[in-house]
Amino acid sequence: xxxxxxxxxxxxxxxxxxxxxxxxxxxxASQSFFWYRQDCRKEPKLLMSVYSSGNxxxxxxxxxxxxxxxxxxxxxxxxxxxxxxxxxxxASPGGYQKVTFGTGTKLQVIP
Amino acid sequence: EAGVAQSPRYKIxxxxxxxxxxxxxxxxHATLYWYQQILGQGPKLLIQFQxxxxxxxxxxxxxxxxxERLKGVDSTLKIQPAKLEDSAVYLCASSLHxxxxxxxxxxxxxxxxxxxxx
Lengths: 111, 118
What we know:
The structure holds 2 protein chains of 2 kinds. By secondary structure, chain A is mostly beta strands. In chain A, about 0% of the residues lie in helices and about 55% in strands. In chain B, the strands form 2 sheets. In chain B, strands 2, 4, 5, 6, 9, 10 and 11 form a 7-stranded mixed sheet that branches. The interface of A and B includes residues 6, 93 and 96 of A.
């Protein structure tokens, strides 16, 4: 089983739609979780951290489910500008924080 | 604040040649990472430094890749000799947290160096 798994997509959704991505992780001791956004030919940029209680930032909501070992990202009222690849990032504790990226989920918002 | 600086932006070399990439992290960031991102894949960690010490280089192909972070600030990543499968974007990232701390700060990436080996 991969350490971090994501559905590569692409998810093609119309403008205004709500879309959700999941990301599963294998290490139950993982403690830090993030969603990054990566535009084509650009570097990844932090979208939001994922907190245990869940968190929301405008149209974006992130959730953590420790029991089932997955995190989710919900995007409401999709915009054309949301088209990108969304990378799940999991950090595991230990002597140092091991950081693992998922392969990303590609989102295409269509007019 | 200034971001993570990387150079060059693009590099084309022939297989078996050598190449070096440079990274200057955000000032004060203790932890520096080098990632390799092959087209269509997520970034793969090559090496992680805390200050000038290596904390994880388990996925670094040490027969051809090397990296250093002298003085705990900027860093260089070298490939010698390059292979065709090394064609990728090499991303440098830095983080405020120290490696042993659990953090929600996340990581800031540079623009990357796109390497093409022909």
